[in-house]
Amino acid sequence: MQRPTHEVEYEQMLLSRHTFLSRRGGRRTDAVLERSAYILLSRIRVQGPMSIGELSDAFGLDASTLNRQTAAAVRAGLLSRIPDPEGGMARKFRLTTQGERLLDEERRGIVEVLDRVMADWSQDDITAFASYLKRFNNGIEAIGGRPWPRPSSQDDETDG
SUPFAM superfamilies from the xrefs (predicted)? Predict the structure, then answer.
């Protein structure tokens, strides 16, 4: 007999294939931000300005990968480099006004698609699904030792 985790694995695999789809009609060309930029900007928005070292620790990626990603985001006008607000030596990255605007636009579009996907779900079902998904992610983060900060409920309302 297969364990239920086999079904979770398969459904998670299917879910991961959808992450590259854009928010509008499933056409990638409609995406506002590349997936890696969306995740990078989302982390900096929740945590505040971060250095390459902090980003490397947060994502579990080597500094050269983060250097490429942040350089592309700076060239695109999504991030800017600033002195460490706490007086440290390393420069940090913060969202620009354009980065904030595009992140908000992308998030609104993703939520619109999720609203369409779950149009026939009850509020209770959506709330339960969100709770299970958060619990699932928290379990992964605990094993990996890289917890992801989450915005407060008030922040969620102002972001979208």
Answer: Winged helix' DNA-binding domain
